[in-house]
Amino acid sequence: MPKMDPISGCSVMTVGEFWASEAKKEGKEVAEVMSDFYDDMAKEEESARQTILSDLPGALAKLKEYYHPDYDDSGYVPVEVLAITDADTCFGYSKSTSSFTARVQFEDKIRTICYSEVDYSGSFYEPPDFEANCKVISEE
Predict the structure, then answer these.
(1) Residue 91, class by beta-carbon neighbours within 10 Å (0-12 exposed, 13-18 middle, 19+ buried)?
(2) CB within 8 A of 124, min separation 6: which ones?
(3) pTM for the model
(4) N- to C-terminal Cα separation, the chain
């Protein structure tokens, strides 16, 4: 049964109460509703992963932003993403992560890099946040 949170004044319920409420709305068992939800999430993650694998211009844009001279002093200037060899995504309640490994032509040489980013959705006490990292795996 939903209760009023004394701090926020919002109506709140436990995780179990939420799933029971959703199951009742859909006329299904709790386990079935949860299974459907997590199956849908897995499909969305795989779709996002496939999008990352095929989006060479998008990857280049992210790398150009990451290696922008105002934020990075490495001197790396990405020119072209030659191939994205691996990608991963993970969606969650409070944060989502994505990453890719790519062969990238920089001005001076080809590097294999791993780029990752985390999106924090925030909470009642913390604002949303974004973090990106890039690691050079090898150079040719």
Answers:
(1) middle
(2) 7, 8
(3) 0.80
(4) 61
Give per-residue pLDDT as tens, 17-65. 999 999 999 999 999 999 999 999 999 999 999 999 999 999 999 999 9
Please give the torsion angle defined by the CA atoms of residues 23, 28, 29 and 34, in that order, rounded to the nearest 10 degrees: -60
Backbone φ, ψ for residue 8 (5° rounding): -90, -20
Vertex 133, ends 127 and 135: CA angle to 5°? Answer: 170
User: Is residue 69 within 8 Å of 88, Cβ to Cβ?
Assistant: no
Tokens 């996002």 sit on residue: 48
Report the candidate in 60, 62, 80 with the shortest Cα–Cα distance to residue 117: 62
